[in-house]
Amino acid sequence: MKRTLVSVALVAGVAAISGFENGDGIPVPPAREWAARNDALTRARVFRDAVFDASAIDPNKRSVDGALTTCRYRPSEVTGTTPKFDCELPNGDKVKVKYGWTKEIPSEIASTRLLHALGFGADHVSRVETVRCYGCPFQPFYTRSLAQLLGFDGFLDERINYTAYRDFHDVSVERNFEGEAIEAGDARGWEFHELKMINPSRGGATRAEVDALRLMAVFLHHWDNKAANQRLVCPGSDKPDCPHPLAMIQDVGSDFGPKKADVDNWRSKPVWFGNRAQCLVSMKGMPYNGGTFEDVAISEEGRRLLGGRLSQLRPEQIETLFVVAGLDDIPEWVATFQDKVRQIVEQGACPSSVAKGRAS
Predict the structure, then answer these.
(1) I need a labelling partner for 359 at 20 to 30 A (CA). Which of 21, 157, 211, 294 fits?
(2) What whole-number distance in Å separates Cα of residue 222 and Cα of residue 224?
């Protein structure tokens, strides 16, 4: 009987959340909010203010206790397909816990640490041996999915027992990048083709910096790039007139693939597309035909910027990156990483970008 109930919960949970994945049905944002969001995007940067220093990279750094982290269950709307739940740390910070056997966990750990190391915006994701969740129901993700589907989630929320706890082992704990998201109505994030709106004359990133982000997305195989998987954020502030918004990649659970961590698939697709002299990048051969990523020629300045940062990573740093993520076949991951860096660094000169203007 118990197994039957769990099976029903699993199937119903997936059915309940399927509508959240395609991004359809989002109401048109209020015109004023959408205009403010677009204005913020034109002023967006893609690198944090911190000075890049490859020697300071520490893939072992954790944002929470890696042995035992305790938290208080926070019921929230279910999205996606990976088992997860929100939880509140003793200091009041909210984190997202992903559990169960899924390659999304190593993908996120490796991708976010690499993005952060290179100076981009990224959430903080750590692998934790045990998360002790006070108030968590059995299988919180699927229980919540079923409750949402049947409309009794509010009933369950009123009856949470915060004196009881459940332990979740070998999980990831994610803390959001510091800052308030800039959104418009129910519209979240940004699409890759919108990067052309960024205008350096208004304080936004240069063409070289935007191209470095585009090239990084190709490097990671960030094909699942619907708007909700990127975020426009005001770092460390919730001011409506944010002077320097940050455009960052948010959800990297399917990276290093495509379709999550898979070294063979990651190795199979070269960095450059078509005629290498054109320095064209594309995701057309990936799921969903590349999503919101449109084919674009990377500028010489952008190639040098990202290639220069990637080439400063020492072999032992790259190895530790994949070890900490919990992946197998570490030598293969390191060799593939280094080969992709070589493809960028040894590409040869790309066409230079225009010194001023938008990142078209």
Answers:
(1) 21
(2) 6
d(CA 337, CA 327): 14
Tokens of 36: 């403010």
| Dihedral angle sign, alpha carbons of residues 97, 100, 105, 106 | positive
Domain chopping of the chain, boundaries: 28-345
> What pTM did the predictor assign?
0.88
Q: What does each C-alpha distance from 184 to 24, 37, 42, 43 come to in angstroms?
A: 16, 6, 15, 16
User: Alpha-carbon distance 219 to 255, whole Å?
Assistant: 9
> Token pair of 115, please?
């993005």
Residue 184's SS3 state is strand
Q: Is residue 4 classed exposed, middle or buried when 0-12, 13-18 and 19+ CB atoms within 10 A define those classes?
A: exposed
Give the N- to C-terminal CA distance of the chain in Å, as an integer.
59
Q: Tokens 């929100």 appear where?
A: 86
The pLDDT profile of the chain, 360 residues, written as one tens digit per residue, is 443 444 444 444 444 443 333 344 578 889 999 999 999 999 999 999 877 877 666 666 677 888 999 999 999 988 888 999 999 999 999 999 999 988 999 999 999 999 999 999 999 999 999 999 999 999 999 999 999 999 888 898 899 999 999 999 999 999 999 999 999 999 999 999 999 999 999 999 999 999 999 999 999 999 999 999 999 999 976 566 788 999 999 999 999 999 889 999 999 999 999 888 899 999 999 999 999 999 999 999 999 999 999 999 999 999 999 999 999 999 999 999 999 999 999 998 998 875 445 666
Looking up tokens 């350096």 gives 200
CB atoms within 10 A of CB 96: 18
Q: What are phi and psi of 74, to 5 degrees?
A: -120, 100
Dihedral pair phi/psi, residue 120, rounded to 5°? -80, 170
The DSSP bridge partners found for residue 252 are: none
